[in-house]
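Example record used in the benchmark description.
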Amino acid sequence: MDCIFCKIIKGEIPSEKVYETENLVAFKDISPMAPVHILIIPKTHIGGADELNEDNAAVVSEIMLAARHIAEAFNLDNGWRVVTNVKEDGGQTVRHLHFHLLGGKKLNTELA
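Model output (structure tokens):
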């Protein structure tokens, strides 16, 4: 598999990790869209939210709790956003489930 996020998990590609557990890793986005832009990904390869099922969906709960901890660590007291994109039309550029944690400024409220 030629997944860039799997390579980051394996340490084959460097990243600036900010949080890690047995099941997930979070690191700074290399092309940030906000002052704080962190990617949170499961260590198990799941293509996207469309591949979640009863056997693997618990990782999303862990990711959301991690987002809260990361937001606290980055002092995002005024608010933050978590986004996941699904497939090409949804804007997913890496086919590995990942969530963007954005904050550090007032974010645009337009969703499309």
